[in-house]
Automatic annotation (TrEMBL):
GO biological process: epoxide metabolic process
Swiss-Prot/TrEMBL catalytic activity: 1-(4-methoxyphenyl)-N-methyl-N-[(3-methyloxetan-3-yl)methyl]methanamine + H2O = 2-{[(4-methoxybenzyl)(methyl)amino]methyl}-2-methylpropane-1,3-diol; cis-stilbene oxide + H2O = (1R,2R)-hydrobenzoin
Protein name as catalogued: Epoxide hydrolase
Subcellular location: Endoplasmic reticulum membrane; Microsome membrane
Gene encoding the protein: JHEH
Organism, scientific name: Apolygus lucorum (Small green plant bug)
Length: 455
């Protein structure tokens, strides 16, 4: 009996230590890594030309003709299986409609003028020419406090996602004394920003470039808004450059650290312990949906250049690959519809985004971000396990591919100023610009109205 008690005592002490070690594993916060700006251009490092030069999209006639010929020469597409919507991927019956619209109703010359409607610039940072839209407050805003905001897109998006949001932000009325100044860059390797020429350009490195961009434009302190990769890049800026970030706002607040993983595991078995009430029923099912929707992710994180060959060569292939995401990422139920629900989208806007990828020939370089952001070297930075301490705001959309429970977000974002739930999908800026911009303006207003912290 005495022996048993002693043993029990030993086991208890042992498991207490075990639990302690496990707890420490989960809660220990890694040191912030030092990630230099570096040089990503061709050849040996050169000094940047820091001039900010106006930029206009102007695709040569030869490139337009080449595009039209390839679109015209699309081969006979394979018929979908009988009775099938988008469950096997893009339905070719509907794709033919998109291609016919592209050929007959989409006029590139007009769309180029549209895409040039906001002032655009390029400037060289870390050896790369970075493209961005820059909308400054107009003359009517004289005397108002100018607050800079950088808006960050993701994959397979572009600066086009923000075109509807821009006037809503510059024309906001909720803060009468404030004028928002918008900077909207193309990610390196996307659209008209140069791509890195050597391996290693992950979200934190891109964040370094964008922080430098904001400083070059005279903004030492600014707000960030981002979705998709823009959200990951933005949170790395908030982590690595907190002195420059007034607030971080995202429509895909994301936490992938150890604690969030633990929350996910527990939440998938006992959702009511972890997950917000309105998502308790849906949460466990989201993991099979994530697997169903993330095949592209594994390919792009491993062999982006291979899949890039076909997409670079075929307008139909590029459109199917990208626009498919606007179906199920906007609403997973649309997978069962013959048109993938895509008739709910403005086709012209979707094709603008495709044209940016096509004419800049950037699909391959855009996909490499998955390889860089999930390399073992990058994951060793453990950025996901380091809390973001700047004021943060999360707009959660009910059709986002993955739902982040509030407990996980509060762990990652220690100063979570606001968290609100809305109807909408992954491409919130593009799909529901009013909802997103109202939430962003609300967030900025709240953060600006806080009393400055005593030092
Ligand atoms: C595009 O370039 C051509 C040839 O240099 C020029 O004539 C035309 O005005 C340019 N268009 C725009 C929109 O800049």
């Amino acid at each position: 009996m005495g022996m048993c008690l002693k043993l029990l005592g030993l086991v208890s002490v042992g498991s207490a230590i075990g639990i302690g070690v496990l707890w420490h594993c989960f809660t220990s916060v890694p040191d912030l890594p030092d990630i230099p700006l570096g040089y990503w251009g061709p050849g040996a490092p050169k000094k940047d030309d820091t001039a900010v030069k106006p930029f206009t999209i102007n695709i040569s006639e030869a490139d337009v003709k080449d595009f039209e010929a390839r679109l015209d020469n699309t081969r006979n597409l394979v018929e979908p299986l009988e009775g099938i919507g988008f469950q096997y991927g893009f339905n070719s019956v509907y794709l033919k409609k998109v291609l016919a619209f592209w050929k007959n109703n989409y006029k590139w010359s007009e769309r180029q003028t549209f895409l040039n409607k906001y002032p655009q610039f390029k400037t060289q940072i870390a050896g790369l020419n970075i493209h961005f839209i820059h909308v400054k407050p107009d003359a009517k805003s004289k005397g108002k406090k100018v607050v800079p905001v950088i808006l960050l897109h993701g994959w397979p998006g572009s600066v086009r996602e923000f075109y509807e949001s821009i006037p809503m932000l510059t024309g906001q009325k909720a803060m009468p004394d404030v004028a928002l100044e918008l900077v909207i860059p193309s990610l390196p390797g996307y659209g008209w920003s140069d791509a890195a020429r050597r391996p290693g350009m992950g979200p934190a490195q891109i964040g370094n470039i964008f922080t430098e961009l904001m400083k070059r434009l005279g903004h030492d302190k600014f707000f960030i808004q981002g979705g998709d990769w823009g959200s990951v890049i933005g949170s790395s800026m908030a982590l690595l450059h907190p002195q420059n970030v007034i607030g971080y706002h995202s429509n895909m607040c994301f936490c992938d650290g150890k604690i969030a993983m633990l929350h996910s595991i527990v939440g998938s078995m006992f959702p009511s312990l972890i997950v917000d009430e309105h998502m308790v029923d849906e949460f466990p099912g989201q993991f099979s949906n994530i697997i169903q929707e993330s095949g592209y992710f594994h390919i792009q994180a491993t062999k982006p250049d291979t899949v890039g060959v076909g997409l670079t060569d075929s307008p139909a292939g590029l459109a199917a690959y990208i626009i498919e995401k606007f179906s199920t990422w906007t609403n997973k139920k649309w997978r069962d519809l013959p048109d993938g629900g895509l008739e709910n989208w403005d086709k012209t806007g979707l094709l603008d985004n495709i044209m940016i990828y096509w004419f800049s020939n950037s699909i391959t370089t855009s996909m490499r971000l998955y390889s860089e952001g999930f390399s073992s070297k990058y994951r060793a930075y453990k950025l996901d396990d380091i809390p973001v301490t700047v004021p943060s705001g999360c707009a959660r959309f009910d059709n986002e591919v993955a739902f982040s429970p509030t407990v996980s977000l509060r762990h990652k974002f220690t100063d979570l100023v606001q968290i609100k739930d809305y109807k909408g999908g992954h491409f919130a800026a593009f799909e529901v610009p009013k909802t997103l911009t109202d939430d962003l303006v609300d967030f900025i207003k709240t953060v600006l109205s806080r009393k400055p912290k005593k030092e």
